[in-house]
């Protein structure tokens, strides 16, 4: 079944694409808010191998599970996941961050972006990375502890 958010949008335009799918900018009919929607074909993801025992679908589902854990102002938020078993498409509805790329080819000023602006960008990037490190490492350690406890119980019997 299609998500509630997705039913109230109109398409704007494709803003990116990659080997897994494309990203389309949608606008909410209700409040005018924009969303970046990653659109994937499940059949394509299931055929595409990223490792001997892993498909691209595994990668996408891993991305979804990680994004569900995150809440930080410098990390794009996952709003909704739409996976209708009756259709081949899989959608990740993301917060849309308006703006331009840091330095598209040929668009950077010759003298750079300036020290104060560089400092602000760097601070935001480091803040997001520190958050990711703290939360993802904690999640990995929690999972590892569970596995170790399970193995200990097996060894006792």
Automatic annotation (TrEMBL):
Q: Which residues form the Protein kinase domain?
A: 9-157
Which molecular-function annotations from GO does this UniProt entry contain?
Answer: ATP binding; protein serine/threonine kinase activity
Any idea which positions bind ATP? 38
- Gene Ontology CC terms: cytoplasm
Name its GO BP terms in alphabetical order. intracellular signal transduction
Record field: catalytic activity: L-seryl-[protein] + ATP = O-phospho-L-seryl-[protein] + ADP + H(+); L-threonyl-[protein] + ATP = O-phospho-L-threonyl-[protein] + ADP + H(+)
Q: What is its EC number?
A: 2.7.11.1
Name of the protein in its database record: non-specific serine/threonine protein kinase
